[in-house]
Structure formats: structure tokens, C-alpha cells
Write a sequence for this structure.
């Protein structure tokens, strides 16, 4: 495990540097917002397009892989919702807690870190996990809250979901990259180099932005946050491992990447959803803080296990 810890520490050290910069106000919240936009709309989008444009759809989409990840994630989602409702939480809060337990920071942490640590063969599986999370589970939380508030999901809801996908640069980048690849068009040398230079900024930029954004988060409702962090960092990868290695015929290499992706801490966009809907934002914020801190050890252990 020690050699893997040595390899993962630089990534978490970048998060720590961002956190210190945010705590000391050397990097104020306004700066964090603009850095996040740069990473989200430019650097990470360039990286994802370049990855997808150099892969075929068959290298990304694999039905047993999708079924394994989706079934394990849905099982966890339902279980966490049920436990929250048994504690007396309403449907909206229960769904938001389930979103914390399932939605990992695949875009800002998983893509930059796992591709470096696990090699180029990790690109396809990581992009598939990212796509399922963005398309399925980001839509699921919207549908649940809409229904809980007395709305009837219809054309307007579907239109809102579609617009959300179209406005998400990560979804657009992956789709455009696959279209480019499907057309069998080579990426011109200068374009490929431009995307490589811009995409290279995604790793340090995203990790620094994660740390700086954590600096403004308080730690309230710690007991629930610890439970949600446990569900995200331990239960999610455990269920995914069971589905990928035992139940579904997933390629062992891809299954390992899937488990590593499932072990990532709670995604920052869950907090954006919590704020948007006004559902337990402080609880979500604390879960992000706790899970990110604990993931230094848990993610290292998972990667050591799948590469051992």
C-alpha cells in the first residue's frame, strides 16, 4: 500500500494546497468560482474531448459494465433513501442523502487521477462511469424532488433535463469526441497538441479548485456526514465490486477501474443541487468535506487492492 500512497499523495497534496490558499484567503471564493469555470468549461472539456476522440464507442460502452455499475449504484441509492426515511427524513432529504452516497467526484478528481495512476486503459471505463452519473443519477434526483413537490414529470421536466445535459460541457465534450471518433476523422496534429496543452491544466486546476472550495465548508451534522461518507467510500465500491467481479461478466481490468471510480469522495455538484433545491445544503457540504479528507486513505487502499 505504501508505494500506492506515495503515488496518490501528490494529488491530495494539490487539494491541500488549494485548501490552505482558501483558508488564508489568498485565493478568495470569487477566485475559486472563476477557476472552477475555467476547469469545467475549458481544461477538463478539452481533456475529455481528446480522450473520447481517440477512442471508439466500443471501447467506452460495454453493456455488462453499465449494468454492473448501474445496478450496484441503484441498490445503494435505494438503501440510503430507505435508511434516511426510517430516521424520519422526508423524500427530498432522503434523495439528497442518497445522491451523496452515490455521486462521486469523477470529473474533477477521478478523470485526472485515475488515468494517471491506472494507465490509458482506464480512460474508457472512467468516461462510462462519469456518463452514467451525469445522465442517470443527476436526472434521478431531479425527478424525485419534482415528484415529491407535487409536480408531475412531463414534457417540461424532460425538456429541463435535456437542456441540463446540453449545457453540461462534460457531456457535450464526450459526445462530440465520440462523434469525431465515429466519423473516423483523425485529430490534426496542431489541434491534438492544443487540446493536450489545455487539457493538461485540468489536473492541477481541478485539484486546487476542490481544495479551495472545501475551505469555505463548515462541519455541521457530523454524524450524518460520517455515515454518508462511509456509504460513499466503502459501501459504494463494495457493492460495485460485487456486481462487477461476481454477478456480471465485466472485464477484470475495467471492473477494477469501475471500483476505483466508485470509491471517490462525494461530488461537489451535489452541493450545487442541494443549494438549488434548498434541500440539506449544510449536510451535503459536510459530507463532501469529510469524505474528501477520508478518501486519502480509502482511495489509496482501493487502488492498492485492484493493482495488487
Amino acid at each position: 500500500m505504501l508505494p500506492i500512497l506515495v503515488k496518490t499523495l501528490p494529488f491530495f497534496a494539490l487539494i491541500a494546497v488549494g485548501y490552505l490558499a482558501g483558508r488564508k484567503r489568498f485565493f478568495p471564493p470569487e477566485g475559486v468560482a472563476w477557476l472552477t469555470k475555467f476547469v469545467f468549461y475549458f481544461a477538463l472539456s478539452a481533456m475529455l474531448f481528446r480522450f473520447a476522440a481517440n477512442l471508439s464507442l466500443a471501447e467506452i460502452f460495454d453493456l455488462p459494465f453499465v449494468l454492473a455499475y448501474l445496478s450496484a449504484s441503484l441498490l445503494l441509492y435505494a438503501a440510503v433513501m430507505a435508511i434516511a426515511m426510517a430516521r424520519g427524513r422526508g423524500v427530498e432529504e432522503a434523495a439528497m442523502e442518497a445522491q451523496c452516497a452515490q455521486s462521486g467526484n469523477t470529473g474533477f478528481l477521478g478523470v485526472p487521477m485515475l488515468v494517471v495512476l491506472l494507465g490509458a486503459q482506464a480512460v474508457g471505463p472512467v468516461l462510462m462511469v462519469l456518463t452514467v452519473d451525469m445522465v442517470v443519477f443527476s436526472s434521478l434526483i431531479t425527478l424525485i424532488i419534482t415528484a415529491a413537490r407535487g409536480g408531475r414529470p412531463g414534457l417540461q421536466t424532460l425538456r429541463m433535463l435535456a437542456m441540463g445535459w446540453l449545457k453540461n460541457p462534460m457531456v457535450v465534450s464526450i459526445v462530440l469526441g465520440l462523434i469525431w471518433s465515429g466519423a473516423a476523422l483523425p485529430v490534426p496534429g496542431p489541434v491534438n497538441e492544443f487540446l493536450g496543452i489545455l487539457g493538461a491544466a485540468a489536473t492541477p486546476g481541478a485539484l486546487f479548485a476542490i481544495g479551495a472550495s472545501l475551505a469555505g465548508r463548515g462541519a455541521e451534522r457530523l454524524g450524518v456526514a460520517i455515515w454518508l461518507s462511509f456509504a460513499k467510500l466503502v459501501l459504494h465500491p463494495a457493492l460495485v465490486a460485487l456486481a462487477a467481479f461476481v454477478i456480471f461478466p465485466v472485464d477484470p481490468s475495467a471492473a477494477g477501474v469501475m471500483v476505483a471510480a466508485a470509491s471517490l469522495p462525494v461530488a461537489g455538484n451535489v452541493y450545487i443541487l442541494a443549494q438549488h433545491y434548498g434541500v440539506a445544503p449544510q449536510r451535503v457540504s459536510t459530507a463532501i468535506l469529510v469524505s474528501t479528507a477520508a478518501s486519502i486513505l480509502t482511495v489509496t487502499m482501493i487502488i492498492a487492492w485492484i493493482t495488487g
The CA atoms of residues 145 and 277 lie 8 Å apart. DSSP finds 15 helices and no strands in the chain.
